[in-house]
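Pair request: fold both.
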Amino acid sequence: MLKKMIIGIMILFLFTVTACSSDEEVSKEKKDDDSVEKTEQKEEGIEVDKGLLNVEITLPEMLFEEDNMDDVVERAKEDGAKEVKKNDDGSVTFKMSKKDHKKMMEEMKEDVAESLDEIKKDDAFTSIKDITYNKDFSDITLVVDKEAYENSFDGFAIFGIGLTSTFYHVFDGENPEKIKIQLNIEDEASGEVFEEVILPEDLENMGETEDTKEADDIEE
């Protein structure tokens, strides 16, 4: 249950952004704002503490609002959790052995790789011809038909892919402040990388830009 929930959090971002990309009636600015907001909401309640022998993963209350706590505990223990604790703020902490955590990360890695490969076959992203990535998804390249890419909403796939990779690193216990995901957009015809996105840096900058714009509008 725990592994499925964590994998679901990451894969959710891929399909959320996929759905948004096909809705051409929504403006690009609004979609960017939504992506930033959803990222901040999700990351706020996720904590991973890697100890000497065990790993503790704390997930936010919003993931358990419709669940019976007894069922959550039972299913999590069946899935390898040694202890399950509901915290005062409603979040839930799962404790597992390092061995089980390593196994979980291996399964997550397979799921993320499969999801990235599926994007290449998705009719929603016709300009994306190939996606390559390194072993920890920190450097990802999208090979695209440049003209088709620039005249479509396929660019929103970048954020879904980047956020999924970010969460993979978060659940692996990395310091969130040190996580850096680089996404390269490469023209299939020329081999030129004509766009680069760095996450989470570019999302943070996007949020700061919008805050400044709103402040200027208020002053006017």
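--- second member of the pair ---
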Amino acid sequence: MDDECPGCGYNATVEDQVAAAIIFVTAGCGVGINMLITLTTGRLPMLRNSFGTLLRFQSGAETIFLAIWAFYFAPALFLNIDTLKSFNISRRMGQLCLICYDVSIYSHLSISINRFVSLYFPTEYSFIFNDYVTRWIIAVICGLSLTFSFLLPAGGCNMIFSNAKWMLDYHATCNLTLLYYAEFLRAVIVITAIFCINAATYLKMHMHHQRNYPLRAGASNVELGLQQKRRLIEKNFVRQVCIQGFAYVTELLTYFLVSLAFPQQWPNFILTTWAWIMVHTVDGFITLIFNRQFRKILFPKDDTNYYQNGGDTSSKVITLPAGHFINEQALEVML
């Protein structure tokens, strides 16, 4: 074993193989789910827009991230393949994982801004988020992610797979102060921004529904159904963003803070590697569960009764007193 191949010469145990199997199954499920989203988004007419493009970009990054764990790290650990454990290969795979993670959280931020603009500036939305701007957003996200991925190695923070810890561990030369600001604090700031933007989006949506669709006495069944539909949209949005936010915050806390109190191999593995993989797997499931466009594909029968008695408002455009418009179709697709 040497610096060029820290994991070489290591004899895999049964526990190592169990950990590798857990990595493969968890990441493999995530690959399937996120690949389904990536390949399906472009086929859905309602998602052939900026929102759908950003969603496909984000899911694609998560697919690559999880594929690295399922088809590189898991086999290297399970089969004890020394060639895959070399320093140069391992650190490049670790760097690619960081790039994909950054792309994922920046894409989430862009998607949140996209929804925010669609509600606060509905008439300007198509101009603000046209195809050209969307391509630039993706280019900026890639540029930022690549930049930070080279910033850490410059400070000695190469990520290499540790056989002893079953995780991507930072090299002993890593500048911990740089790591704290470049990874942990930066991710916290981005996730906090996502939370604030989503909170403002929900506030606008709720106020719009309360102001324009008050529940009045003697309302017909159709009106009651529409009211129920709007409330369900609000609830689904809150559930989606809360679960996603909770998952990302929990992963950050367990990876960087809680794991320090549990240096034992299995607890440390669950709090770091498994948590990191799981958050991206869960993210895909959340998108499928809470986005109606994907539910139409997965549960076509259930969709026929999705909003019983709710009528069809998919193409309805609401004119507000101030002269703004809210497209109910776009609202439902994005939430």
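Observation on the second member. The domain at 14-334 is CATH 1.20.1070.10 (Rhopdopsin 7-helix transmembrane proteins).
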